[in-house]
Amino acid sequence: MKSCHCNEFSRVTMMRRGAAEAGRGLPSIEPGMPLPAGTGLDRRTFLSKTLGAALTVYGAAALGPNVLDNAIARAASTSHGNKVVVTVFAPGGWDALSLLYPTGDPQYRRLRPEIALKPEDGPRFESDSRLHWHPALEPLSKLHAQGKLTVFPAIGYSHPDQSHFTSRHYWEVGALDPQLSTGWLGRLLDEIGDPDNAMQGLSLDSSLLPSLATARVPVATLEDPTDYGFDSQNVWDVPGALLPDAMGSLGGLTVATDPFLTQASKTAYESNQLRRQLGRFIGQDGQAHYHTRVKYPDGDFAHKLAGLAALLHAGFPIRAAALQAPGEFDTHSEETGPLQQGLQEVAQGLQAFQADLEQRHLGDRVVTLLWSEFGRRAEQNDTNGTDHGAGGVAFMIGNRVRHKMVGEFPGLSRGKGLDVDGNLKENVDFRSVYRSIAEEWFGVDGDRILPDAKHMPRLPLLA
Amino acid sequence: MATLPVYTGPFGPDEAERLLWRAGFGPRSGEAEALARKGLQGAVDSLVHPPAVDRLVGKEPVVDGAPLAPKDAFGHDHLWWLDKMVRTSRPLIERMTLVWHDWFATSNITVGNQKLMLQQNDLFRHIGLGSFEGLTMRVTINPAMLLYLNGLNSIKGSPNENYAREMMELFTLGHGSGYTERDVREQARALTGWTADWKNDIGWVKFHFKAENHDDAMKVIFGKPGPFNWKGSVKLCIGHPAHAGYFVNRLWSYFIPVPPDAKSATLLEQLYVRSGNQIRPIVTAILKHPLLYEGPRMVKSPVLYTAGMLRQRGDRIETDDWVYLDAMAGQQLFYPPNVAGWDETRWLDTSTFRARWLIARRALQKHASNPDHTKPADRPPADPVKLVDRALGWWGSLQVSPNTRKAMLDYAQKTMAAAVADEDRQKSFPVMTYNALRHLAAVSPEMQTA
User: What is the average pLDDT across B79-89?
Assistant: First the structure.
């Protein structure tokens, strides 16, 4: 197992502690900023108050605040009722033999003698009597029973590549093209997005998740939506209040022969733009003021999802968000314990997120796609793990999903369910799912997003 | 015979500074001027042939009043290496160590043993300019790598494919470069046999080759039959026709952000093969190449950005904040995100930019005076132009574009305008403005790149 969770935990804990310390006791940098989200204001009042305050504080900003704020206002005022897609990437590769274990298939125990689960371990999978849910996925089984979750038990693409990086890249860019540098969601945003709204594509990660890479419109990356300030040691009052916009005006530099210098400059501008948008969400004390009636599990992943639900509820103009699942699913050895732990964190977090969206009346607007780059080899290896495979598993969650299962578990007989390398064969192409999201969710012709859309069967996935 | 292009333009402090950023961690105060006096040849020579023993300049690191415990304390591994980058007199050796840490990326998330990670780090430090075949051999059986890519206890009859695949895909050949899935499986067989003893409370010890675990039967790799073992496995990769091209292009990418022209690439490949897969001559040629001096700037990695500021100012490591701050910016040493290393095309986005803001904030923390406690004689001038000049000068006479200068000047003019007719503000605002201007300079596009 390429993961030691005790280490991961201590590292993340330490980073959080440090980040909290870095922001402690500092003077407020934005006097006069408005009430944060979730305090009873409706969206329009909220927005106008925010902009009024922002213009007071930033009236003299070098980059033309009216243009910027108008863009944010435009995006926010039209965002009501807009559809949103959230993608969650589970790194490493996972498969149906682990997640929906085929205890009803005679080959299962032979292929995975040491790591097979027993029929009584996990809930029955109602769409296929051969399969059971991994016990840690019980929260997802409940969503499935409620008709809010579609399972793709054997998803992938033909001629599967067994490199993590290449296969993930294909999924991120939405094409089997190693050279393509924009993501599938990035191209979607290039179609439907706003030239000045960085929040339309939100990567909830320490760096940009590649599916959101655009060619035309800006997108934002945010490790933690509740913590995004720009203050400085021993700088307060007017010098403190003017500092972030001065940082933003470092962003006006374009040097045609120096793309990286230009990029560094542009990032300063976009960071300030994002800060201004989030200014409505983070209070003067540097803390986010949002409330949720849903109990989320502990951990970074759930914290990000909770923040995302609150941002959506507060009317932030987000169209696509991407984040990574906790856990490392590249389970080459001793996989049982770490797999259980990773799956549990993912499933519990997403269950809480879905419940939160529903209580905020966002259930009909948001669909969540949970995916990994490939499956695992059907036959386990000698170290109680599994090597890279082909067909994997994906899930789609939301009130508007049409099906409980798309595609089928192909079985474990060689030549039929398994390919010549002993890997599970895919029977749904991931690009069909993307096409469906583009067309049914966003009303954008799949051909405009996906180079191979016309070869992908149309799957009505969303109502 | 055609020869590799060599930069022939002026080699002054600006060029020497760029060389120090690409081949090291930026200049100490006065270092660029001293290097420029050696001329290009002499400068590159001094970097690729450094003294055998490093001389660390400046004070030893200290955290919470105690020296570092890099083998034991969480994060001290990062601080220990960061300190070397800040204080080294052999910058290229440390820079190459960072290159190999990225190239043969190994994460302590999996290894879970800082001592083994530091052993691997020393390997890079000691043979990082020697033979690439030798380096790959040593990495293949390096304990941290054996743990990271499951080479440990991969045995005959059930080989683990993880290292075999990454050795070809990421370390020597490149994805899709003349190997098949069958080659992955056969290489995995050749690599079997490495094991270690488990000791409670200590972990894995005595890494060794155990003949009965090794599959010594015939294999066919790249179409060649033979009873290959791990040495044969590495030799086949290094001898593969796709290797030299992959090696040269990847190594180049660590120093110059645009690809080499076809002629330079071919000549570098020939040089590499002719030298018997030596690293030093290739690095030397890249450091003298015109594109290094005439091409675009590169984004500094988070660690380079951090180390560079401390080195520039001659500041000591005296906090463990650098661990979480560099991690926030996307680069915690000994924890690359995956076996492909860090993705240098993704260093800058709105999330990592804020982390860099916090890095600069931390670097300035002890230098930023509190206006309430600043004596009149220590107050900076109230003139905006002078404040901007002083702030840029503080960072080693940072050269900035008119746009950056204007952003800083506009800011200073506004804060000074707000202090007019207010006695308290006239005392405190110049101090705060000077603090803020140094911060703005530190996150300017000119300082994020080199």
Answer: 98
Model confidence pLDDT, tens digit, residues B123-139: 999 999 999 999 999 99
Chain A 353-412, CB below 8 Å of chain B: which residues?
A: 381-383, 385, 387-388
**Mutate which: A15, A16, A176, A206, vs B, most B CBs within 10 A:** A206
Q: How far apart are CA B420 and CA B426, in angstroms?
A: 7
- What's the predicted TM-score (pTM) here? 0.79
Question: Is B333 within the bounds of a domain?
Answer: no
Residue B323 lies in a domain: no
Same domain, B269 and B379: no
- Would B22 be classed as within a structural domain? yes
State the Cα–Cα distance between residues A141 and A126, nearest whole angstrom: 9
Question: What range does the domain containing B190 cover?
Answer: 13-294
Pair B284, B396 in one domain: no
Q: Which of A198, A264, A381 sits opposite B350 (nearest CB)?
A: A198
Q: What is the mean pLDDT of residues A76-96?
A: 86
> Reduced to 3 states, what is the DSSP secondary structure of residue B449?
strand
* Same domain flag for B274 and B401: no
Looking at the domain assignment, is residue B1 inside a domain? no
What are the tens digits of pLDDT across the range A441-457? 999 999 999 999 999 99
Number of domains in chain B: 2
pLDDT category at A78 given cuts 50, 70, 90 is low
Q: What is the CATH number of domain A84-191+289-455?
A: 3.40.720
Enumerate residues 291 to 350 of chain B having a beta carbon within 8 A of any beta carbon in chain A. Answer: 296-299, 320-321, 323-325, 327-328, 330, 332, 335, 338-340, 343, 346-350
B288 with B409, same domain: the answer is no
CB-based contacts of A264-268 (< 8 A; 24+ apart in sequence): A264/B299, A264/B348, A264/B444, A264/B445, A264/B448, A264/B449, A265/B403, A265/B445, A267/B348, A267/B349, A267/B350, A267/B353, A268/B353, A268/B443, A268/B444, A268/B445
**Contact with chain B for residue A158, Cβ under 8 A:** no
**Domain final residue, candidates B294, B313, B334:** B294
| A25 and chain B in contact, CB less than 8 A | no
Tens of pLDDT, residues B195-207: 999 998 888 999 9
- Sorting pLDDT into bands at 50, 70 and 90, what band is A10? very low
CA distances from A373 to A342, A389, A429, B171, B313 (A): 16, 10, 12, 21, 45
How confident is the model at residue A254, as a pLDDT? 83
